[in-house]
Each structure stands twice: as structure tokens, then as C-alpha cells.
Inverse folding.
């Protein structure tokens, strides 16, 4: 899979490149700002961009702006945004109308390399990856009339993994349960929360995130 | 009025009466007395010179005694004397004045018109205010006697022959110079009227309006004389001049009425005027709605209005004039008023003297306000600087320590992969332990940096930042209302963010509440944020520096913080900041 890496720190770009290459990805270009990134996107035929949310010149949200632009102009390209902080606001902003080929992760996620590379792969293959911290904050959020309280521990884990953008197979193997049991859990969750079942493994990300954030 | 002046006035009055009797006797004993076009030359002389001349002198003497320091009285006397010498000049034509006196009178008598122009331009203050007026009047004083001298040398009397007493224009010699002076002078008077403000027109009107028919008659009569026909018009004209001394007196007396409005001001002052009532009271007393009081601030070395805002004094060539009150080096205040009031310097001085003490008190208040304003601004600057510093520290952490630790994480992963490749599982396990501690450090650093300055506030604004706070809050929080589509200025967003942040922290720590509510809104130019809980209440500004600091922070951006906290109804923290 051909990847572009964008971050204003050259050491970080190099480190990330080596980690990605060790995971079997081909890094076809490095950009230190949004302009360079646009040039690379236009010229390299990459299928995935990994970029920092903060980039020059103002170091605020240039990365987010660039990510949304690339998603709009190149819907076939995957975009994974990295950040030192994660905010549910940015997650939903980046996901927009469609959870396809998009990811938003803390930079700390390199601590678990397999998890990180799995998330990169997911995004590259058309899925989504929402940082577990975003999900756990939303899940742990206290609500006045909390339907989440009615979920069992297992159901909550399933809901969290769904919100991160995992597929059914990934959830089943992570929780060491059978796909049939998983589907039963998912059915219960939907009915307990009053959610409409959403099609596809990762299409449900938006519905679940929106539910968690708004309820 | 001193004794000398009183004697001069008395002597002048007696002389006038004597002169009047003398003229009366003169023209009655002369042959040809009668009424109508057949009038004798002395009849003309009496009408043309003696009636207006003596009325000017009499009115001038009255004016001088009423306003001893005002030159208007003297100028009126000057006009009168000029007119009366014209009478003497005519008498000379019938052999009553010596030839030597005739030469002298030839110089002096045409000056009455110049003095009249001087009087009209200086009325009612007695001083020529405009530079142009001063230059022109001075040159008149030089040119007219010179023209008269030329006329004498050339053998022409300046003021005409006996048959054409006033309007004998000797074209093109002295008479035309004289006429030119009259035209220029009238133009200046008209200019003064139209350029002046409300206050000036009001003061000029008693002399300006009589001048209008006089000028019209003058033009008509001159035209008649030039055509060679002397009619009743010419005999009526001089009588009109009498309106001028009467107008002058009325004007001066009305100025006296203005003094009485200064008296009203004094009465108001004794009843106690608040500082903000001083300026309107002065404006009313001086009939100048544009009047402004500027208070001198010694510390800042500039003038300010009552609110402490800086005022620049008008420059010398502007339409406004300035009077400094008190020691000019360190004045109490300055009065800025329409330059037409310069004519009534006495009035302004009197009014200013009356309010001096009150202005001194008001200035103390202005000084206080100016200092407060300065403190407010410096507090705002301090808070802004502190916020800027926090933002800088956060960025330093983000670009420095956080980025380096993340890069270190990456390189540890690379090293671990290398160890695994060499089947050095012991080292790989050690590296894993390091990765775990590093991750913990990164987590702590992240929370620290977020506390210093939340990047979401800069990136997405106040509402997402508040929602981010509520997502982390262990008590359920309802967020209602909104702050509109446009973002607030960064200092306002930061102030309100920290209000919410501190309020949530306090509620979680002390309130024992089970629910919180944050309501947002924009109301009449204010952004309002209210955080309430259903806990035990008892929050107190005097206890702990958190709430105190919030109050200061909100005040620094011009807003206010209200804390309602009783022992039954939980705590409500209400913050509002002006957002334009």
C-alpha cells in the first residue's frame, strides 16, 4: 500500500516511515506542510495519507483542513489524521457524512504497534479507525437518562469496538466470541439504545458515535 | 469706573448738549430754513452729521460707562466725533471754521466711516478677533487720511460740496478710495456674520440688521447722486444711521442679560451641580451648545472629558477657541467654545471664574476615572499577556517534549523490531516496559498541556471546547442554548472557557451535586454563560482563589461574574462579557 506521510518534524516523519515500512507499507513521499502535501497527493498515486492535525504556518488546524480537502477532492484516497490530543468534535468533523477511508488517532498509538498498523490497514482498505480514547470518553460520559447504563459489560465492549470502526470479525476475535454470539449482542445493543441497524461493518461508526455524543 | 472716566463722561455729555444747542441756534439763524427739496445746506448738515453724530457720541458715552473696559463705547464716540467734525467742515464752507482747521478736518472727518467699520467688526467684544479684520482695519486707518491728504493737495474736498453733502464722489481720486474702503468693510462685516456660529450671530444681530437698510439706502442714494439728482432719499438716509448707536446699546445691554445668565449659573452652582451637569450649565450660560469642558490630567499631561477619554485642544486656526482656567502651566481645565464667543471674553471669563471650584472637584473625578480606565486596560493587557504565554507554553510542549517523546516511541518500536529480529526477547521485553512508561508520561504531559491551554479552544472555538470539558466531567452535564455562528474574540473565549472549566472543577470537588447545567446565550451585546449545579451550595468568593481569579479574569475583558450559592439551591455561576 502506497502511503504519504505529512508532519513538520523530520525526525517524526523518518520514525513513522520506518515503522510503516516494517509493517509492509510503501512510503512514497514525505511532506512538511499542507502545500507540499497537496503536491504529493497530485503527483504520487498514493492510496493513503497520514498527517498531523497541526502543521505550519499557524500550527492550529492546517492538518484538519487539508484532510477534509483531500477527502472531498480525492474520495478514493484514505486519510489518517494523527494528533497529540483527541476530541470527539474533530472526529465527527473529519468523518463528516461518510466513515469510508478515514481515521483519527492519538500519536501515542505507536506504543501498540500491531494495533496502530491494523488501524492504518483498515483505513487504507476503505474502513475507519476512531481512537479508543475518543470512544471511551464518549462511552464513559455521564448522562442524565443513561441507556448505556442498561448495557452489560460485554455489550459495552462491543459498542466501543464498533465505534472505533472495527469489523465484526475483528470484534469477535478480539473478544474471543463467535460471530453468532456477536450478532446477538449487536442486536440487543441496537434495541436497548433504540438505534436503527446500520448496514455494513463500519458504516455503523457514524450512527454509534453520533448517538454517544448527542444523547 | 474710575473718577477720571466719570468726569470725562460727564464733560462729554455737557459738551454734547452745548454742541446740540449751538447747532440748533446756527441753523435757525441761517437763511433759507425750511422743509423739503428746497432745504438749505445747513439743514442737510444738521441731518447728515449732527443727529447721527450726537446720537453716536451719546450712546457711546452710555456704553463706555456701562462697559468701561469694552472698547465699543470709545469706538462709538469716535464715529460720532467723526460725523460732528463733518458738520464743522460744512460750516467752514460758509465761513465758520478757520482755513487751518479745515485742512485738519479734511483729514479727520472721513475717518468716521472707518471707525464705523471697525466698530461693526469688533462688536460686541470691542476687539478685532480675526487676523484679516485687524489687517484690513489698520490699513484703512492708514489709507483713508492719505487719500484725504491727496484730495486736499489736489484741491478736492473729500466730502463733497455743499449741495451734495454725503455722496459727493470724486471719481477717480480720493472719493473712489473711500468708496472702496466702504465696500470692503461691508464685505468683511457680512463675512463675519456668515462665518460666525449661532453665538456670534446672536451677538451681532443688533448692529447687523440695521446695517441692511442703511446699506440699501446708501447704494440707492449713491446711484441717485451719481445721476446728478438729489432727492428726499438722500435726506432720509442719515437719519437711518441713528439706528446703529441704538443697536449697539441694545446689544451691550443684552450682553448684560447674558451676565445675568451667568448669575443663574452661580445660583445653580450654589445649589450643588454634579460634575456631569457642569458642561450643560456652562453651555446654557454662554449660549453655545457646542461648548466642551476639557479637564487637565497632570499625571498623563493631557486633557480629558468627564469619562477620562483624551481630548485634543483645537488649534489656533480652527472654528473653536480655548480658555485655560487656573495656572496656565498646570491648568484645572480648558473651556472649548465657538470662536465667536471670543468677542465676549468677559462673559466667558466670568462664567469660567464662577465654575472654577466646581471644575476643580470634577477634575478629581476625571483623574480618578482616567486612572481606573488605565488600570482596566493594563489589567486586560496583563491577562492577555498571560494567556498568550500559556498558549506559547502549550505550543512549546506540543512541538518540543510531546513530539520528542512520540518520536522516541517510534524509535523504540524500531529498536524493538530489531531485537525481535535477532530473537533477543529479553531486550524486547525491556523495551516494552520502557514503551509503557513512556506512554504513561505522554498521557500525563497531555493532561498538563490541556490544562495550560486547550488546543480545541483555538481550533474549534468555545462551544466545542465546553463540550469537550463536559465529556470528561464525571457528573452529567446538560448544555443548552448557543452562542451564535460567529466566534467570540479570543480573550473572551478564553475567559469564558476558564469560567466553565473552574465551575465544573468546583462542582465536582465540592458540590456533591448529581446534575449540572450549562446554558449559553447572546443577549443585547453580551455573551452569557451560566453554569449551575444541584449540589450543596455554599461557594464563596472570599474562600479560595479560584472563584476570585475568575471574577478578575472576566472583569479584565469588561464583563462580570455573579455567583449565587445558597445552602439549599446549589451554585450558579453567571458570566457575561460584552461581545459587541
Amino acid at each position: 500500500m502506497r502511503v504519504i506521510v505529512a508532519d513538520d518534524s523530520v525526525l517524526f516523519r523518518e520514525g513513522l516511515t520506518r515503522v510503516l515500512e516494517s509493517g509492509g507499507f510503501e512510503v512514497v513521499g514525505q511532506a512538511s506542510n499542507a502545500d507540499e502535501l497537496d503536491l504529493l497527493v497530485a503527483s504520487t498515486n498514493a492510496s493513503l495519507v497520514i498527517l498531523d492535525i497541526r502543521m505550519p504556518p499557524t500550527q492550529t488546524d492546517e492538518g484538519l483542513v487539508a484532510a477534509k480537502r483531500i477527502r472531498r477532492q480525492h474520495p478514493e484516497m484514505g486519510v489518517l489524521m494523527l494528533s497529540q490530543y483527541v476530541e470527539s468534535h474533530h472526529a465527527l468533523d473529519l468523518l463528516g457524512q461518510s466513515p469510508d477511508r478515514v481515521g483519527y488517532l492519538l500519536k501515542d498509538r505507536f506504543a501498540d504497534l500491531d494495533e496502530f498498523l491494523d488501524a492504518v490497514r483498515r483505513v487504507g482498505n476503505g474502513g475507519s479507525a476512531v481512537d479508543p480514547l475518543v470512544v471511551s470518553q464518549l462511552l464513559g460520559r455521564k448522562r442524565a437518562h443513561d441507556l448505556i447504563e442498561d448495557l452489560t459489560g460485554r455489550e459495552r465492549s462491543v459498542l466501543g469496538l464498533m465505534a472505533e470502526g472495527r469489523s465484526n470479525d475483528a470484534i469477535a476475535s478480539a473478544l474471543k466470541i463467535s460471530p453468532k454470539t456477536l450478532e446477538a449482542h449487536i442486536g440487543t445493543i441496537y434495541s436497548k439504545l433504540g438505534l436503527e441497524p446500520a448496514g455494513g461493518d463500519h458504516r455503523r461508526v457514524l450512527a454509534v458515535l453520533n448517538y454517544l455524543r448527542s444523547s | 469706573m474710575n473718577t477720571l472716566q466719570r468726569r470725562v463722561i460727564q464733560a462729554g455729555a455737557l459738551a454734547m448738549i452745548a454742541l446740540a444747542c449751538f447747532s440748533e441756534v446756527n441753523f435757525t439763524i441761517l437763511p433759507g430754513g425750511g422743509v423739503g427739496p428746497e432745504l438749505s445746506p445747513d439743514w442737510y448738515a444738521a441731518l447728515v452729521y449732527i443727529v447721527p453724530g450726537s446720537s453716536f457720541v451719546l450712546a457711546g458715552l452710555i456704553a463706555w460707562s456701562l462697559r468701561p473696559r469694552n472698547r465699543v463705547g470709545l469706538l462709538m464716540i469716535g464715529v460720532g466725533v467723526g460725523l460732528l467734525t463733518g458738520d464743522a467742515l460744512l460750516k467752514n464752507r460758509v465761513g465758520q471754521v478757520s482755513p487751518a482747521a479745515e485742512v485738519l478736518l479734511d483729514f479727520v472727518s472721513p475717518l468716521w466711516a472707518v471707525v464705523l467699520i471697525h466698530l461693526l467688526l469688533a462688536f460686541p467684544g470691542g476687539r478685532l478677533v480675526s487676523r484679516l479684520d485687524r489687517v484690513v482695519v489698520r490699513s484703512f486707518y492708514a489709507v483713508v487720511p492719505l487719500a484725504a491728504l491727496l484730495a486736499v493737495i489736489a484741491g478736492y474736498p473729500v466730502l463733497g460740496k455743499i449741495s451734495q453733502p454725503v455722496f459727493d464722489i470724486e471719481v477717480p481720486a480720493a472719493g473712489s478710495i473711500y468708496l472702496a474702503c466702504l465696500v470692503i468693510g461691508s464685505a468683511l462685516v457680512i463675512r463675519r456674520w456668515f462665518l460666525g456660529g449661532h453665538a456670534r450671530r446672536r451677538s451681532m444681530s443688533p448692529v447687523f440688521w440695521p446695517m441692511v437698510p442703511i446699506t440699501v439706502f446708501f447704494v440707492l442714494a449713491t446711484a441717485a447722486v451719481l445721476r446728478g439728482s438729489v432727492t428726499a432719499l438722500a435726506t432720509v438716509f442719515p437719519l437711518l444711521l441713528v439706528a446703529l448707536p441704538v443697536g449697539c446699546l441694545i446689544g451691550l445691554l443684552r450682553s448684560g442679560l447674558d451676565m445675568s445668565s451667568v448669575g443663574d449659573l452661580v445660583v445653580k452652582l450654589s445649589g450643588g451641580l454634579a460634575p456631569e451637569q457642569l458642561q450643560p450649565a456652562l453651555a446654557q450660560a454662554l449660549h453655545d451648545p457646542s461648548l466642551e469642558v476639557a479637564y487637565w490630567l497632570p499625571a498623563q499631561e493631557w486633557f480629558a472629558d468627564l469619562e477620562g477619554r483624551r481630548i485634543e485642544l483645537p488649534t489656533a486656526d480652527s472654528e473653536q477657541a480655548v480658555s485655560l482656567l487656573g495656572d496656565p502651566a498646570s491648568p484645572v481645565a480648558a473651556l472649548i467654545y465657538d470662536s465667536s464667543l471670543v468677542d465676549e471674553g468677559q462673559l466667558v471669563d466670568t462664567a469660567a471664574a464662577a465654575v472654577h471650584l466646581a471644575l476643580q472637584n470634577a477634575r478629581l473625578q476625571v483623574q480618578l476615572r482616567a486612572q481606573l480606565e488605565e488600570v482596566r486596560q493594563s489589567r486586560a493587557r496583563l491577562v492577555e499577556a498571560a494567556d498568550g504565554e500559556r498558549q506559547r507554553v502549550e505550543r512549546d510542549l506540543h512541538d518540543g517534549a510531546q513530539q520528542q517523546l512520540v518520536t522516541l516511541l517510534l524509535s523504540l518500536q524500531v529498536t524493538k523490531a530489531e531485537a525481535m529480529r535477532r530473537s533477543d526477547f529479553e531486550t524486547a521485553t525491556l523495551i516494552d516496559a520502557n514503551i509503557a512508561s513512556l506512554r504513561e508520561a505522554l498521557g500525563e504531559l497531555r493532561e498538563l498541556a490541556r490544562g495550560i491551554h486547550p488546543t480545541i479552544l483555538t481550533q474549534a472555538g468555545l462551544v466545542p471546547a465546553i463540550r469537550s470539558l463536559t465529556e470528561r466531567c464525571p457528573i452529567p452535564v446538560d448544555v443548552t442554548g448557543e452562542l451564535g455562528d460567529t466566534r467570540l474574540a479570543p480573550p473572551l473565549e478564553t475567559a469564558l472557557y476558564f469560567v466553565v472549566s473552574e465551575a465544573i472543577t468546583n462542582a465536582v470537588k465540592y458540590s456533591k451535586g448529581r446534575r449540572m447545567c450549562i446554558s449559553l446565550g447572546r443577549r443585547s451585546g453580551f455573551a452569557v454563560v451560566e453554569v449551575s449545579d444541584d449540589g450543596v451550595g455554599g461557594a464563596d468568593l472570599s474562600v479560595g482563589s479560584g472563584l476570585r481569579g475568575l471574577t478578575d479574569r472576566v472583569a479584565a475583558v469588561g464583563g462580570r461574574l455573579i455567583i449565587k450559592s445558597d445552602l439549599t439551591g446549589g451554585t450558579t455561576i453567571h458570566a457575561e462579557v460584552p461581545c459587541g
Notes: Confidence is low (pLDDT under 50) at residues 21-39, 157-172 of chain B. Chain B has 17 helices and ten strands. Residues 459-578 of chain B form a domain with the Heat Shock Protein 90 fold (CATH 3.30.565.10).
